[in-house]
Amino acid sequence: MFADLGAAPSTTVAAATVPYQSLVGDWYRWLATDGLSILLWILGAAIVIRFIRWLGERYSERFEAEFAGSDMLVRSERSKHMRTVIQVISWTLIVLVALIGGLKILGIINVPITSLVGPSAVIGAALGFGAQRVVQDLLAGFFVVTEKQYGYGDVVNLAVTGGATKQGTVEDVTLRVTKLRTSDGEVVTVPNGQIITATNLSKDWARAVVDVPVPGEADIARVTEILEQVGERFFDDERWHKYLLDAPAPLGITDLELDSLTIRMVARTLPGQQFAVSRALRSRIVRALAAEGISVREVPTHTAPAAIGAAGEGGV
C-alpha cells in the first residue's frame, strides 16, 4: 500500500508534464514553419520597400544631377513630370507590396479572406465616409499626374475646400497628397481631393508684375517714358537678360485714387524667376523715379515661395 502511495505523485507529475511538453513542441513546430514564413514575408516586404525607395531616390537624384550639370536655368517640364511620375510609382508599389505581404500573412495564420467579408462590411459602413475621402484623393491625384497640372519644383497656388489658399514650391506628389514648401520653410500637406483650383506659377513661362504708385499730379507721359527706359536697360543687363523672355514694359494706368495713381509694368520670365525679377525691377524703378524727383508711394510686394531660383534675391 505504501508503494502505491509513493508512486501516485510521480504519475501525476508525469501526466502534467506531457501536455506542457506537447504545447512547447507545438510552439517550436509553429515557429519552425508558419512563424518562420511570417518572419520571412515581413523581412522580404521590408527589403523590397527599402529597395523601391532607394531606386526612386536614385532616379530622382539622377534628374537633379542632370539639371545641376546642365546650363539650364530652370527645370524642363519633362524633368519635373518624370520626377513626379517616379514619386507616384514608388508610392504605389510600396502600397502594393505592403498589401500583398499582409494578405500572405493572413493566409499563413489560416485567416480566410472570405471570413473577413462580414466584418469588412461593418467596418466599411462605419468608415465609409473616410474611405470615400481616400478614394477621392487617389482619383484627384491620378488626374494631377496624368494631366501634368504641376510637378516637382513647380511654384503653385492651391485653393482648397473651405476657402483657404496654400502657396509654395512642390516638394512631393503622390496619388493621395501634395506637399508644398512655403516661403516660411514650412511643409504643408494637402490631400489631393481637397484641391479645388491649382494655379501653376512656373509652367512654361511666368510673368513679373510690378505696380508703381505715383502721385496724382505726376506727369504720366514722363513717368511712362522713365519706366520704358528702365525696362530697356534692365533687359540689356547681362545679369538679368538670361531670365527674361521679353523686355519689361509699362501697361498703363491700372488704378486711380484720390491723390495717386498706379502704373503697372510687366515682363515675361523663365518659370519661377518672376519674383526675383520683380524685386530687382522694383528697386531700379524707385531709384529712377527718385532721380527725377518723383516720389513713389508704398509699393505692394508679393511673397515669393521658397526654393525659387536665386536670380539675385532682389539685387540689381
TrEMBL record:
Keywords: Cell membrane, Membrane, Transmembrane, Transmembrane helix. Residues 134-202 form the Mechanosensitive ion channel MscS domain. The chain crosses the membrane at residues 27-52, 85-109. The keyword Ion transport does not apply. InterPro entries: LSM_dom_sf, MS_channel_C, MscS_beta-dom_sf, MscS_channel_2nd, MscS_channel_C_sf, MscS_channel_TM-2, YbiO_bact. Residues 209-295 form the Mechanosensitive ion channel MscS C-terminal domain. Its main location: membrane. Pfam families: MS_channel_2nd, MS_channel_3rd. It is a multi-pass membrane protein. GO terms for molecular function: mechanosensitive monoatomic ion channel activity. It comes from the Bacteria. The keyword Transmembrane helix applies. It is found in: Cell membrane. GO terms for cellular component: plasma membrane. Belongs to the MscS (TC 1.A.23) family. PANTHER family: MODERATE CONDUCTANCE MECHANOSENSITIVE CHANNEL YBIO. This is MscS family protein. It comes from Gordonia amarae NBRC 15530.
